[in-house]
Design goal:
Elements (H helix, E strand, L loop, with lengths): L2 H9 L2 H18 L5 H15 L10 H12 L1 H6 L1 H23 L2 H4 L7 H4 L3
Helix pairs in contact: 2-3, 2-4, 3-6, 4-6
């Protein structure tokens, strides 16, 4: 086991590890030219990562973590298709960031509260 791999495992939990590994498998299949059916599943995995607390980890880059796992799981594909891997991981990282931003918004961020009816809006 590599030194940085040990650190990753200490900072995560089994759910995070499983979700990241599944996302890496989807990326490997995509790099190998298999259908993108797994990409539909990726949003659910990203949501699961978020709910498992991944976003709260310090000094973490989702894209780097994902690319490292892909390189471990399918080294040849990842090595020969580095540009494609960067593109896939960047898209997933953007989706993850968007989900994290959406989940962290409070109702006051979206719009100010409104009165329920006319009598609560006035002194009538």
């Amino acid at each position: 086991m590599k030194m940085n791999e040990t650190k990753i495992n200490e900072d995560t939990n089994p759910e995070i590890e499983a979700d990241l590994n599944e996302l890496a498998k989807i990326c490997c299949r995509s790099l190998a030219g298999e259908s993108d059916a797994g990409m539909d599943r990726s949003e659910n995995l990203l949501k699961s990562l978020l709910m498992s607390g991944y976003v709260g980890k310090k000094n973490r880059s989702f894209q780097v973590d994902l690319e490292n796992r892909v390189k471990e799981q399918c080294r040849d594909c990842a090595m020969h298709r580095g540009g494609a891997l960067s593109s896939i991981s960047e898209k997933l990282a953007k989706k993850f960031a968007d989900l994290a931003r959406w989940e962290s918004r409070s109702p006051s961020d979206a719009s100010p509260s409104k009165p329920a009816n006319i009598s609560s809006a006035t002194d009538a």
